Amino acid sequence: MAALPFSPYVRVAMDHWLLPGAPIWERVIWDYEILFLKQGELEVTVENSVYHGLPGDVFLFKPGQRHSIKVTSPAPADQPHVHFDLIEQPDSPEVTVSFKLPEDMDETEKGLFREDLLSGADLFLPNFIRLRDPLSFETILFQIIREFQMKVPFYEIRLKGLVLDLIVFLLRESQWLNRLEEPDHLSLLVEIQRYMNLHANRDLTLDELSRQFHLNKHYLIGLFKDAFLITPMQYHQQMRMERAKNMLKFTKLSMQEISDTLGYPSIHSFSRAFKNKEGRSPSTYRASLSQAE
């Protein structure tokens, strides 16, 4: 996926209660809105789709999408939300939140719609997500709300990072985690990763991982590859190479000392593994860093 120049601009961030008799009538907005249902129940219509929202659900309204919101629970609904441009523009501070339909807008207002960058083939978020981990999402969202309301020094920079955190969280919840057969597999994969991190200083075999986690080798490879798009052994080798590059860059350890630290049987096997992964020897890599300074 090509790098995208995201630099979010937060327009509104607030914790808001919606009363049963005070719906948000059908409208379109110029920007994005992420709405989190913390308490109560909602009926949310986006274009021709109707969603029944329960606590822990997230709704994403995209630029130009018709949508409406009404409370279906007897008590008010707590629905903290954030309006934002995914890429800050010169007019971002002047643009407000729309409560209109396109047919009620003048030509100037019709020109305020932001490009929808979250509906592509590589980067796609649906309008409705039922979260597996709503507490983590809520933590990030309320950090955004606090930063926006308090406006302490450098809050604009902090907000950009937090909105990107929120989007990545939703992308992983809606796309990456859906590749796993069972939700419990995520915690297992995290444990496997942690084990490999703890043993980055030596060779690790698939047989050892299979015994350690009581998994068939072929099943382990498939599960790991479905989640991370590489095999466990490729991940382990990649991790060791990243550690080697950090030691070459930030320490004055000799090649032999780095080889020993990472558990290679000889400096020659270390050099060969490094060259196979990086396309050049460890010494050439370190020399190139000195030349770049």
From TrEMBL:
UniProt protein name: Helix-turn-helix domain-containing protein
PROSITE patterns recorded: HTH_ARAC_FAMILY_1, HTH_ARAC_FAMILY_2
Residue ranges constituting the HTH araC/xylS-type domain according to the UniProt record: 190-288
Stored InterPro entries: Cupin_2, Homeodomain-like_sf, HTH-like, HTH_AraC, HTH_AraC-typ_CS, RmlC-like_jellyroll
Keywords: DNA-binding, Transcription, Transcription regulation
SUPFAM superfamilies: Homeodomain-like, Regulatory protein AraC
Keyword NAD applies: no
